[in-house]
Amino acid sequence: MNFPFYLPCPRGTAELLCQELLxxxxxxxxxxxxxEVEGGLAAGxxxxxxxxxxxRVFLPLSEFPAATPEELYEGVKRIPWEKHxxxxxxxxxxxxxxxxxxxxxxxxxxxxxxxxxxxxxxxxGQRPRxxxxxxxxxxxxxxxxxxxxxxxxxxxxxxxxxxYRPKGVDAxxxxxxxxxxxxxxxxxxxxxxxxxxxxxxxGSGTLxxxxxxxxxxxxxxxxxxxxxFQRWKGHDESLWQKTRLQAKQKIKLLPxxxxxxxxxxxxxxxxxxSADALGISGKLSFEREAAEEFRLPQKMRQMKGLIxxxxxxxxxxxxxxxxxxxxxxxxxALKSSAQGWRFGLFTPREDLAFALGIRADKSNRFxxxxxxxxxxxxxxxxxxxxxxxxxxxxxxxWTGHTPSPEATALANRLRKNLKKLKTWKTQNKIECYRLxxxxxxxxxxxxxxxxxxxxAFEYEPxxxxxxxxxxxxxxxxxxxxxxxxxxxAENIFYKERKSQKGRGQYEKNQEWSExxxxxxxxxxxxxxxxxxxxxxLFLDSRSIRQWIFQEAKGKxxxxxxxxxxxxxxxxxxxxxxxxVSLDLNPxxxxxxxxxxxLNHLDPHRHAFIATDVLTWLNSAQGGYDLILLDPPxxxxxxxxxxxxxxxxxxxxxxxxxxxxxxxxxxxxxxxxKRGFKLKNEALKGxxxxxxxxxxxxxxxGGRPIxxxxxxxxxxxxxxxxxx
Length: 723
What we know:
There is one protein chain. By secondary structure, the chain is an alpha/beta fold. The longest helix has 20 residues, at 105-124. The chain is elongated.
C-alpha cells in the first residue's frame, strides 16, 4: 500500500530536502515548504531514519473542507480511527492555521479532539485520553485556506533532535539546518572524495558532528529510541528492523579529518560530550583556538576541503568592532593558508561577509528561526580577492558614542594645539601636519591632519590596561574629533600602531585603500590613509625634504630606501640634474613615479631601481652630490642577502653610501630607531654633524621622533659637533 508522506523542513531548504530524498531512492517532489514522498511504509521508515534535513515526517490520514468549526468536527469524525489507534490509547493534537476562517489553533485542536473522542465513545463506549508529554499517537492538523489536512506525526518528534546534544545545551544552529548548509556546500561529495572539514566557530560542535555523520553514512536518527509510528496500528516492526539493518551495513565509523575550533572551553566540552553521546569520540577533533588566529593545521596543508562556520552576530555594545576585525583577520588567514579550499560563511550580516576581502562565488538565502541569513560560498584563490573599489571600508564604530566627561580635557587639548599651529601652518601653507602625539597619558594616540581628513594612530596599550578600558578611551578619542575640530565622520580614519620590525611600517596593513592627493611645499603627493601603516608621506621629514629642494639644483641626487620617493620629487622639482631612487619593493617605486607625474615631472628621465640597497652599494659607481640615507631600523626580508640591524650595521652602510659622494658632496643619514647611538669612531674619513633643527614645529616637544646627521667626506675632520 502506498502512502502520501509529507516532510516539512526549515524555510529555504525544500529543494535540498527533495534532492536528498531522491538520492535515498525515494519518489519525492517539492510541495509548498516541504516535500511529498509516495511509497509504502518502507519509504516512510527510510525518510525518518535517513533524512538530515526534514523537520518531521507526516502521514496524511484525511483531507477535507474546514471553513467552520462544524466542518472541521465532521471531517475529523469521518476518519476510521480504529485503523490507527485503540479506544484506550493516549493522544495529542497540534494545529497550525493559515489564511483561513478559523484563526485559533488551540480551539481547532480541541474541536478535532472532541470529534475523535466522540467517534470512539459512540463506537465502543470508551474514549482515548489526552497526553501531551508522551502520547501513543501524535496528530497534526494543518488548515490552509479553509482546507484541512489531518496527519499522523509519523516521526513523533522533530527530526532535528538527533539525541546527541547534552540536555540544557543551546546551539545557534538546529541540527537539520546545519546539515542543509553542509549539503548546499557539497560536503557529501567532498567527503566521499576524502576531503577535510573545519569549523572555526564550532561552539557545541553541531556542524562538525553533522559533517562526520554524513561522511560516515551514519543515519542522523540512528540513536533515536522513540518514534511516532511505534504505537500506530499500521506499524510493521519487522520492516522497520530491516530498514535499520540495511542502514547499519553502510555505516563506516572511521576517523575523518574533521576539526572544530573555538575559543570557549565550555563550548568545547559540550562538543566533546555530544561526540561521546553519539559514540564517535576520538573520530573527530575539537581544539581551542580563536577564529582570528586561524591557520590551516599543518597536517591538513596537503589536503583540500571545506571550511564552514556560523560566527556570532553581535549583541553587546562594542561587539561590532570586534566582529568586524574578527572577519577581517579570518579573511586574511584564509587567503594566506587555505588556498584551494572551499569556505562557507553563514550569517545575516552581508557587511561582515564583505569584511573578509574575498569575492563570494554565490550566496543562498536561509532562515535561522525567524532570522533571514545567507550562506556565502567562497573559493579561496588569489583571483577571488575583492578589488579595492569593492571592498567594504572599515565601519566607524565610534560614531554613535558620546564622549565621557573625562574626554573634556582631550577636546580642550586638541583645540589648544590647533590654535598654537594656526599661524605657522598658514604662513608656511601647510595642510598636512601632526596635531597631537600622546599629549595626555590616558589617550595614547597620534593624530595627523591631511587637508580635510584626519588619521588617528592608536599606540598599542600596555598589557595591564583592561581591553574594555582601552576601547572606551579609543571611542572617546575618535568621537571627540568631530566636535572639537569640525571633521565629519567620513573624514576620520583610524589605525593601530603596534611595534613593527624591519619594513613592517611599509608593509600592507589593511584590506582597504583610501587614497588622497595632498599638497606640501607646493608639490602634490599621493597618500593612502588606510592600506599601509604609514601613509606615504612622513610628516616629520618635512624640513629635510625642503633642504633637499634648496640644495639639489644641478646636482646628482641618490635616494636610498626611497619608499614613495617624496624626497626624490623635492630634489627633481628643485632642479636636480639626475635623481636615482632605490627601494626593495617595486610597488613603492611605482608609487614614486606616480608622485613624479602628479608634479609634471618626467619619471623616465630619472632612475627607479628595485633592488637590495646593501647589495647595490657594494658595486655602485660614485659621483653623487647629495644622498639621503633613511634605512629601516631592522629588516629580515627574504629578498635581502643579509639581515639589517641599523644599530649594528650603520657604520658599513654609511661608509658605503659616503664612498659614492663627490668631493664636496653631502649625505643626510636619518634613523627613527629609539636609543640609537652613532659610532663616530667607526666612520673613517667622514665628518658628521648631528642636526638638531630637523624636527618641524608640529613635532617639537617630547621624545624626538628621528635623529639626523649631515655627513661629508673630510679627512682629518675634528670631533663630531652639532648645530
